[in-house]
């Protein structure tokens, strides 16, 4: 089973003066060939026709969408999970105080029934990120084997940031909270630093310092099946989004 998390930057819609990126995004996803795909910033995917077409294109027939509340710019940065396997028990965290959103569902995977929780945490405020992830964890406590993945917008104390980090505060509370209960699969793989943001794509921000803010966490039983962990950093990925997709294989 291959799992991918990918923030696709405004649903692949053009940045000012730039081309549409959806074709590049789909090519990167198809190259990665995930069985479970967690997307963040899936703007426009709350249109049933759009979600259905993406599902058909990717060959991932099961999916669920959480419509995000409107952001300051009026856009909805939705969270979507696609799956090759049947899904059930969809929970959208409706009414919770998320800047964007989170989506939990159960998938009938080759590892057995597994809870997949796709999160996109607050973009700027560590205290609010921590509150959001505690809401997620409170719900996930009732689940069995699970994977929690997505764009956490948060740093890990295990990564080599310098004390003069200026673009993103050196705060680790959110990932520390995750590490008390789950396994950070990239860190556990000891595969070296795997930056996931930013790419070379001109985006809606000016950040240029390498960060790891996209994660795949798993409960210990699921983590015992984890194999390779990698980010796709091809030239095409640099054109598709400001984030790189992160992939984990389970065996």
Map the helices and strands.
Layout: E1 2-7, H1 22-32, E2 36-40, H2 48-58, E3 62-66, E4 79-83, E5 87-91, E6 101-109, E7 112-120, H3 126-140, E8 146-151, H4 173-179, E9 183-184, H5 185-189, E10 214-218, H6 220-223, E11 226-231, H7 235-240, E12 246-250
Helix pairs in contact: 3-4
Question: How does this model look, in words?
Answer:
- The mean pLDDT is 94.
- 24% of the residues lie in helices and 27% in strands.
- The protein has helices at 22-32, 48-58, 126-140, 173-179, 185-189, 220-223, 235-240, and strands spanning 2-7, 36-40, 62-66, 79-83, 87-91, 101-109, 112-120, 146-151, 183-184, 214-218, 226-231, 246-250.
- The strands form 2 sheets. Strands 3-4-2-1-12-11 form a 6-stranded mixed beta sheet.
- The chain has 251 residues and is α+β, with helices and mostly antiparallel strands.
- The radius of gyration is 16 Å and the shape is globular.
- The longest helix is centred in the middle third of the chain and has 15 residues, at 126-140.
- Helix 3 (126-140) runs parallel beside helix 4 (173-179).
- It has a single domain, classed as Deoxyribonuclease I, Chain A (4-Layer Sandwich), CATH 3.60.10.
């Amino acid at each position: 089973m291959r799992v991918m998390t990918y923030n696709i930057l405004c649903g692949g819609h053009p940045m000012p003066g730039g081309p549409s990126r959806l074709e590049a995004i789909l090519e990167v996803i198809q190259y990665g060939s995930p069985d479970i795909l967690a997307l963040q910033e899936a703007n426009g995917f709350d249109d049933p026709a759009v979600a259905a077409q993406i599902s058909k294109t990717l060959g991932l027939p099961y999916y669920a969408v959480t419509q995000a509340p409107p952001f300051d710019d009026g856009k909805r940065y939705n969270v979507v999970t696609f799956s090759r396997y049947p899904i059930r028990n969809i929970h959208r965290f409706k009414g919770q105080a998320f800047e964007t959103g989170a989506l939990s569902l159960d998938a009938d995977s080759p590892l057995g029934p597994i809870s997949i929780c796709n999160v996109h945490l607050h973009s700027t405020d560590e205290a609010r990120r921590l509150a959001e992830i505690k809401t997620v964890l409170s719900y996930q406590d009732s689940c069995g084997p699970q994977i929690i993945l997505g764009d956490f917008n948060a740093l890990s104390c295990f990564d080599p940031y310098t004390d003069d980090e200026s673009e993103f505060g050196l705060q680790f509370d959110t990932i520390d909270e995750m590490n008390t209960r789950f396994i950070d699969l990239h860190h556990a793989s000891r595969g070296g630093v795997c930056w996931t943001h930013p790419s070379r794509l001109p985006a809606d921000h000016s950040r240029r310092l390498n960060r790891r803010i996209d994660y795949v966490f798993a409960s210990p039983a699921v983590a015992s099946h984890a194999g390779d962990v990698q980010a796709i950093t091809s030239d095409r990925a640099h054109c598709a989004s400001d984030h790189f997709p992160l992939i984990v294989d389970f065996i």
